[in-house]
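request received
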Amino acid sequence: MRIERRAAPSRRMQVLSPLLALVATGLTGAAIFAGLGQPPAAVMYAFFIAPVRDLYGISELLLKATPLLLCAVGLSLCFRARVWNIGAEGQFILGALGGGVVALACNEFSAGFGWALLGASVAGMLAGTAWAGIVALLRDRFDCSEILTSIMLNYIALQLLLWAVHGPLKDPAGFNFPESALLVEELLLPTLHPDYRVHIGLPIALLAAAGLWLLMARSLLGFQVRVFGESARTAGYAGFSSRVLLWFVLAACGALAGLAGAFEVLGPVGQVTPHLSAGYGFSAIIVVFLGRNHPVGIVLAGLLFALTFIGGENLQIEFGLPRSITQMFQGMLLFYLLAADFLINHRLRLPGAAPALAGER
Amino acid sequence: MDAELFATLAFSTLRAGIPLLYCALGVLLAERSGMLNLGQEGMMLMGAVVGFIAASESQSPALGVLAAAGTGLACGALFALLTLLLQTNQVATGLAMTIFGTGLSAFLGEDYVGSSIDGIAPLAVPLLADIPLFGQALFAQDWLLYLAWLLALASYWLLHRSRAGLIITAVGEDPAVAHRLGLPVRRVRALMACAGGLMAGLGGAYLSLAYTPLWTEGMTTGRGWIALALVVLAGWRTGLVLVAAHVFGMAGILNLLLQGTGIGLPGQMLAMAPYLLCIAALVLLSRQRDFGRYQSPPGLGQNFSPED
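response:
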């Protein structure tokens, strides 16, 4: 078998390679479980099917997909502009803190909860934006690698959260647990249906994805981001300001990730705790890659990743397997995806087959 | 501060820098050839967990170190395979390595959380170890620490003094030109990526077998990322990497160092120190135009394929 470079990237493989990666991940997973002495079929069922057997399961899937989608939409914008922001996790945490602080301050109110909820969401967005703004400032003014600074800010954000729940935000009536007081029910986001926990964050996340599509496909700013991402030099010749784009993509990502954090506090968690994020900010990076940096792809990949989170929880309950399996599978999936992308620009040919003609797709 | 306390602090400060030193040397070796592997955190964790498991099953820390080195090497080889043969994006592949390594290490180490082993014991050099103030710090450490310094020396020689170092640098500066000169670009890069992985594995092993002989999930707490930053800060120079690793090691144990001074900061604030220091150093560095910034290997992170 020979490897041959394609004359042009294959569109078909662009769509097929995520599916190929998925199948490869599934097969590897089954092999690992078989090696561990677990029945692979049953484990796979418990991971992928059982969590979404009923409406409640699907609503939980959508609940988990909400923060993932918000972070992924923001990151997609950054990656399109080749701004390697790895800091969605920290921006998420700051958003949770900002939203949490405002919401807790309003916890004793007797009225005006709607405004308090709005205020807390906006505070979350602002806190996330500010945190991402540090990355933009460091890159803009001091030419610091955004990869390194955004990662460092993730660790600082985590310590800030830990400090807050051990100190100023700690619930005085909370038996010394490092957690804030529970928010009153009026301060929680309206749910889409009384029986389920999925809240209005989901339509907002979907709107954000739609907004991303509109921005990239229909606006001058989006066009600039695209040009900038493909060739910074071309963007320079066209007179696009790389500084404006840098600030714009980071601020937008910070706002969305911050909103995701605030929504976790104001939604399913209902208080500020040390373990607010299950690594959404990191997983969202893979969601963007898996979704081919396209809004529709990101929504599909976000749903799949939400499934890996609840599937992992289900495996823990049913088989006593550690939850870290989720992260392992996510990493493996990205490996396979990157490897499968080789087929976009290359093809495998059996010996004896005629060589490709120039221009053949 | 009395002499005994000083001696103890000097002892722990040097130890705290070693995981960073191992990992940063690995980053340096790989990056000099143009391989940007952001998977350090994952490779370190894999080394730490496999080293710990091997040591606790075999009761031999030395075997643990070997297993950790082998695991790191395998991770580096995987990175090389993906980026060199399958032409994957180096940034994305490194991120995948970090996420995968974090998950897999937590998975493998699940049953070993909380179990303890006999770590690598310190070796005291007779007489020299009794020198006041610095004797304990310099002459009563474990062999894995001395190995780190030896490898720093070896890296210095390899990169800055040997013919092989010239080849590595040429490959890192412009792989296409190096290829036209007849240098085996992909082989050099694969080798350096493997060496980088091996060093990250050793860094992990130092954490779980010597520094704190135990395993906890995510025990590297960002050291892999700091190591990546260290190399930037050191301007890709081995001597400065050695110094910087120990400075950051000190920042990592600030809480220990400040204990006696009565400065009452919450522990979480002190825990931010290495990350804040890292950002501050990157900012300061940008002010020094001729230092570091332009020493970055021009071909860093760029893929190369002979068919292009």
